[in-house]
UniProtKB/TrEMBL annotation:
<dbReference type="GO" id="GO:0008146">
    <property type="term" value="F:sulfotransferase activity"/>
</dbReference>
<dbReference type="Pfam" id="PF00685">
    <property type="entry name" value="Sulfotransfer_1"/>
</dbReference>
<comment type="similarity">
    <text>Belongs to the sulfotransferase 1 family.</text>
</comment>
<keyword id="KW-0808">Transferase</keyword>
<protein>
    <recommendedName>
        <fullName>Sulfotransferase domain-containing protein</fullName>
    </recommendedName>
</protein>
<dbReference type="InterPro" id="IPR000863">
    <property type="entry name" value="Sulfotransferase_dom"/>
</dbReference>
<dbReference type="InterPro" id="IPR027417">
    <property type="entry name" value="P-loop_NTPase"/>
</dbReference>
<feature type="domain" description="Sulfotransferase">
    <location>
        <begin position="32"/>
        <end position="267"/>
    </location>
</feature>
Length: 278
């Protein structure tokens, strides 16, 4: 259809996961060593999950605990509780709907973001592939929906809120990652994650993770696992910075830039829209 199926849960838009599971995120009981991975959809959640998982794990195993097992927005707490520690609980809910334990336990939070044009393109494909969205529109029809906010609401609201939270909550332990930095220099970023998680791993291991998690290796590794529809692996599409150039027309790009400037006037965030060019 031309409309994207989403639902309102307590005043916010979400995909059609069980409302009680979405609501349950804010009351999840955290363990002391839980890591919380936060992202707007399509910003590199699977990639950063895997990097964290391997760093915590300490060896490159293919005994896969897929990210999906710990996706708090759709997996009930009882199932999250079946997973061994340390867990990497991942969610796309906004900060105020994170587990209330976050304020008291102050777990390590990894927050990854990505430039909004690539997010829009990636989310467009994702929305078409995921059956629960019932969507088969064109990119030109999707873009205004993305800008206005569909599943999980507006990208702008999401990143602006995190910017404020980080600026005003020094006592929280938050690591900011970007998809573009991970692409640009994976080893540097893997080392940052390692330091943040407080694990002692050597440079050879970082090299190992880099290779184990590069796009095609990771895509291949998850090929026969869940998350496949009609032969397409839903979460591994192109894996590049700047694919938006193949989708945005010049007019759409100018339109987007105007909205960006207006919406982000008070923001200090800078995004890379291509690598090695700007
Ligand atoms: P594209 O649709 O642009 O290819 P998320 O995990 O948050 O759903 O994000 C999915 C996006 O990350 C998709 O972007 C996907 O291809 C990309 N991705 C997944 N694994 C990756 C990896 N190992 N390296 C680079 N990009 C990856």
């Amino acid at each position: 259809g031309k409309n994207i199926t989403v639902q309102d849960v307590d005043g916010r838009l979400y995909p059609s996961f069980k409302p009680e599971v979405i609501r349950g995120v804010s009351s999840l009981k955290l363990r002391d060593d839980d890591v919380i991975l936060c992202s707007f959809p399509k910003s590199g959640t699977h990639w950063s999950f895997e990097i964290c998982r391997l760093l915590l794990n300490g060896r490159l195993d293919i005994d896969i605990i897929p990210k999906g097992y710990l996706f708090a927005d759709a997996v009930p707490e009882s199932e999250l509780n079946e997973v061994n520690s340390p867990r990497i609980i991942n969610t796309h809910v906004r900060f105020d709907r994170l587990p209330s334990d976050v304020k008291t336990k102050k777990p390590k939070i990894v927050y990854i973001r990505r430039n909004p044009k690539d997010v829009a393109v990636s989310f467009y494909h994702h929305t078409r592939k995921m059956e629960h969205y019932h969507y088969d529109g064109k990119f030109k029809d999707y873009l205004p929906l993305f800008i206005g906010g569909v599943a999980y609401g507006s990208w702008f609201d999401y990143v602006l809120e995190w910017e404020t939270i980080i600026a005003n909550n020094q006592e929280l332990s938050i690591l900011e990652l970007t998809y573009e930095d991970l692409k640009e220099d994976p080893i540097r970023e893997i080392r940052r994650v390692s330091d943040f998680l407080g694990v002692q791993r050597n440079e050879d291991f970082f090299e190992g993770i880099k290779d184990f998690c590069n796009f095609s290796t990771m895509k291949g590794r998850f090929k026969d696992k869940m998350e496949i529809k009609d032969g397409h692996n839903i979460f591994y599409r192109k894996g590049e910075v700047g694919d938006w150039k193949n989708w945005f027309t010049v007019a759409q790009n100018e339109w987007f830039d105007r909205i960006y400037e207006k919406t982000m006037t008070d923001s200090k965030l800078k995004f890379k829209y291509t690598l090695n060019q700007d």
